[in-house]
């Protein structure tokens, strides 16, 4: 079990929605913001935080509708709007200069935030970041308007189960324990998340195209698992070519959950990158 001391939990209303975030105070140290991926939460950083908390003032955010953040069906779940949530939260916390660390979808949110507010984002760390994904298929978007579409999402996710989903995102299945399964399944006991995911299907505009990536001058560190089955390593290699100021590392025998599978290596590369 990972025990994290000095964690403070808060909720702030941002963009009209309650956003849960956690703070590991370290006054005077650089501010680092941890942004999780799709179907995840701040829980996914629990193994990386112990490596980082002595060197950074950490803020871990639950993006809506995930984790303990509000699961509203009125919120617009576009990547641009989620990036604005992160930006507004940091402004309210009087953070003027931050390092963003984004895993999977959180990497894409970090890039959107960097595009929107380049002066606020000092550096970006992309851990198996989503990349080059298009909008959902029109038929899926159309279906999301039906009142009980969320029950289809719930059925599909329940049929797959947390064990099967975790097997898809880690390379070494022996690391999957009860704590891990409980942590990832907990937010889905609330039916409102499935309603929000229906809304997200039609709001998500897709990942930033190559022409936008080429305009992002923010220094970027890309870390990938070579056995990533969710966002294959060639996506990271392509993003490294498109981002003009980036550095790329890949890890053997590592899947999609690099913050959990290789927190030691990830933290070392972050320390080197952020000097």
Automatic annotation (TrEMBL):
Keywords: Hydrolase. It comes from the Bacteria. Pfam families: Abhydrolase_1 (PF00561). GO terms for molecular function: hydrolase activity. Residues 30-133, 207-263 form the AB hydrolase-1 domain. The keyword Hydrolase applies. PANTHER family: ALPHA/BETA-HYDROLASES SUPERFAMILY PROTEIN (PTHR46438), LIPASE-RELATED (PTHR46438:SF11). This is Hydrolase. It comes from Metabacillus indicus.
């Amino acid at each position: 079990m990972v025990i994290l001391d000095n964690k403070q939990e808060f909720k702030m209303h941002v963009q009209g929605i309650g956003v849960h975030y956690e703070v590991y105070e370290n006054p005077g140290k650089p501010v680092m913001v941890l942004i999780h991926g799709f179907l995840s939460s701040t829980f996914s950083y629990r193994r990386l935080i112990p490596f980082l908390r002595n060197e950074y003032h950490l803020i871990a955010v639950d993006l809506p509708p995930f984790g303990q953040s509000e699961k509203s069906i009125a919120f617009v779940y576009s990547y641009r709007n989620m990036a604005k949530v992160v930006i507004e939260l940091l402004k309210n916390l009087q953070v003027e200069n931050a390092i963003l660390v984004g895993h999977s979808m959180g990497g894409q949110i970090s890039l959107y935030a960097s595009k929107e507010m380049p002066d606020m984002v000092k550096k970006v760390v992309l851990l198996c970041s989503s990349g080059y994904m298009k909008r959902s298929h029109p038929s899926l978007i159309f279906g999301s308007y039906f009142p009980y579409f969320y029950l289809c999402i719930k059925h599909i996710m329940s049929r797959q189960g947390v064990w099967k989903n975790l097997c898809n995102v880690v390379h070494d299945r022996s690391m999957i324990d009860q704590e891990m399964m409980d942590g990832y399944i907990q937010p889905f006991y609330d039916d409102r998340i499935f309603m929000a995911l229906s809304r997200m299907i039609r709001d998500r505009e897709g990942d930033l195209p190559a022409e936008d990536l080429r305009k992002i001058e923010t220094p970027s560190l890309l870390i990938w698992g070579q056995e990533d089955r969710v966002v294959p390593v060639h996506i990271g290699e392509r993003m490294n070519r498109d981002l003009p100021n980036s550095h790329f590392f890949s890890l053997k025998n590592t899947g999609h959950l690099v913050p959990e599978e290789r927190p030691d290596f990830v933290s070392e590369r972050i320390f080197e990158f952020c000097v």
